[in-house]
Amino acid sequence: MSETAQLKIGDKTYDFPVIEGTEGEKAIDISKLRDQTGYVTLDIGYKNTGATQSAITFLDGELGVLKYRGYPIEQLASKSSFIEVAYLLIYGELPTEKQLADFQLHISRHTLVHEDMKKFFDGFPSKSHPMGQLSSLVCSLSAFYPESLKSNQSEAELDLSIIKMLGKMATIVSWIYKKSLGHPFIYPRNKYDYVTNFLHMTFGQRTEEIEIDPVIVSAMNTLLILHADHEQNCSTSTVRIVGSSESNIYASVSAGISALWGPLHGGANQAVIEMLEKIKEDGGDTDKWIKKAKDKNDTFRLMGFGHRVYKNFDPRAKIIKKACDDILEKLGIDDEVLEIAKKLEEVALKDNYFIERKLYPNVDFYSGIIYRALGFPTDMFTVLFALGRLPGWIAQWKEMKEHKEPIGRPRQIYVGKVNREYVDIKSR
Ligand code: CMC
């Protein structure tokens, strides 16, 4: 017999179905709650609210498990490539060799952006934050591809919009970097795979051919895979909710980029390095900074620590920590902030404040150290997170459309003034 949940309000009892996910998670389906009782639920920050039923990503915060389409993140990070993971997330299955080659080729044919887009790049101050540029530039793609505005796109049209989104994103990200340096843009080359092409456009020069180090390609693949999806986080929920009003893919992804920017979400990777640098300049006394993080009268938080869902460890952080050691060793880089990060982690993991609140290093704690070793400036870190998260946003947006989900529109409990009479301005 299927399980039900009972709710008693006054002398009335209501039954609600309990639904169970394929990994055993249970939810009380309250979709008829208001109709039946006149009540709504209140769950600020959505800590207890399942917003959808999704078949893309599973994570168990208590056990530290993360899987994309059923495949453990550890296997994907060590065996797969970013583009293969993108295919898996978006289409649900690992591609055959031919499917992967076709996907890569299709994307390569859509990496150019309209030449007029360069005028937008010209318009931004060269020191403006890359995330603001990225969000605007991605939204502006909708102006160049008006067929994406149709809310009833055929499967082929939808697929083409997805391919364009993937192809142009890498070009836009690398051109934002080039713009910050005042260097000429480097055009994509179809002979390269997605990640190599991105590195070619980012670190390449018009004046000479560069060798792209396979160590860097591999590190970049790992980082992008680890960021590729994370179920209903702040930016993904934003993408789904914007898309639920039948906004186009570029507008939806652009909104996700804005949501990712904040330091409590993707912006944490930049904030971590800035914090570590500050601690270094301050003499490297980690105990002092741990004390500050625990002090309720101090606004300082240990950036890169804590997670809304992971209450044991973040499996991505484990992989990144190891990758960080490997990459710095392979590139022969000795980074003092890595030592500070490790010391902070060691102290925090033994401290009751962090133990009681189940605060562990998250994906952003070590990722910035790797990005820096690869040659990226600090303010590009969150943009790289966005590049990695793009397949997840697309997959979730596509799933939301396939499910024909209704427009996202939460309720509220109004607590403002009631029934006031308008007073003429001269009498106030
Ligand atoms: N340093 C010090 N104290 C913390 C931290 C931290 N980094 N994170 C949480 N706490 C404390 C917080 O003060 C609260 O204490 P108390 O119960 O005494 O009031 C308790 O732990 C619970 O915190 P919360 O803010 O209610 O938890 P949340 O689930 O709403 O927030 C978080 C999760 C990630 C926003 C938060 O842990 C945080 O601000 N971390 C630092 C920013 C960061 O690294 N963000 C990246 C997240 S992972 C990348 C991604 O997917 O976006």
Automatic annotation (TrEMBL):
Record-linked PANTHER family: CITRATE SYNTHASE
InterPro entries found in the cross-reference section: Citrate_synth-like_lrg_a-sub, Citrate_synth-like_sm_a-sub, Citrate_synthase, Citrate_synthase_AS, Citrate_synthase_bac-typ, Citrate_synthase_sf, Citrate_synthase_typ-I
Substrates-to-products reaction catalysed: oxaloacetate + acetyl-CoA + H2O = citrate + CoA + H(+)
GO function term, MF aspect, one: citrate synthase activity
Lineage: Bacteria, Pseudomonadati, Bacteroidota, Sphingobacteriia, Sphingobacteriales
Acyltransferase among keywords: yes
BP GO terms, sorted: tricarboxylic acid cycle
Pathway: Carbohydrate metabolism; tricarboxylic acid cycle; isocitrate from oxaloacetate: step 1/2
A cellular component term, taken from the record's GO annotations: cytoplasm
Species: Mucilaginibacter ginsenosidivorans
Active site residues per record: H307, D364
Entry-linked CDD domains: EcCS_like
Keyword field: Acyltransferase, Transferase, Tricarboxylic acid cycle
Protein name: Citrate synthase
Transmembrane segments annotated in the record for this chain: none
SUPFAM superfamilies linked: Citrate synthase
